[in-house]
Amino acid sequence: xxxxxxxxELNTGAKxxxxxxxxxxxxxxxxxxAVEAAVKIGYRHIDCAQIYGNEKEIGLVLKKLFDDxxxxxxxxxxxxxxxxxxxxxxxxxxxxxxxxxDLQLDYVDLYLIHWPVSLKKGSTGFKPENILPTDIPSTWxxxxxxxxxxxxxxxxxxxxxxxxxxxxLEVARVPPAVNQVECHPSWQQTVLRDFCKSKGVHLSGYSxxxxxxxxxxxxxxxxxxxxxxxxxKLGKTPxxxxxxxxxxxxxxxxxxxxxxxxxxxxxxxxxxxxxDDMLSKFSEIEQGRLxxxxxxxxxxxxxxxLEQLWDGEI
Length: 314
Hints:
This protein is α/β, with parallel strands linked by helices and 314 residues long.
């Protein structure tokens, strides 16, 4: 059971490595070392985004790893994301080209619409006047064009509720391969996960450890007593148990760290599993979303409440 969870198959036929290195909030100067350490440890999936502001540094490290023969381009899975200021169909290709230039790549393995929110081109921050009406179908058509020419080997979305994903599936010529969302034992996304499974969309979990390094999030995911008990019984860390839970739920996980020892520890989730009797205990964990997206909610925004942004999944 334990070994086959190293990859999941996407609806394109491509395989997505089940554990990826997250790079959100990895400071320039640290992120390059983290990526290099991760690849040498065995990670084959790096999760990037233009808005993280560190793709150039990641690109330099990837080039070095390729040049030094540590890993081949085709052996590594690179994800990036279209930021909200580039939702206008005519801006989508430019945004990916910039990402490819920064990462020094000819293609990404997966390109995601980062949020179901459009912001004024060139704007920074989340001022209410910068939030525009969304037109996801038009943005998606431009994403499909990138898929057609092979610059994005797979396309998908991020932070989409069940309803928003269902709406997109109604109109998509190329169905999204992935929905990347917050997912961990304290926000298990049961409804969304079941829906994704039924539609052949892979669910990928960001903040799978509850984003413990994020100062503005009150996160006690890893301190949950159920997690602690299971970890103790299995001789693993709570972080390893949280990640292994994700794999056993059928989703890829994207733990972020810039500490080599922790990057290594987070990869120690194969060749063992959580027994069913312990797994069933996870349903008792109190649920709460950490990344709420309040910045996108305003009386003049298309989303006037959190309810509307997440379609009730809060």
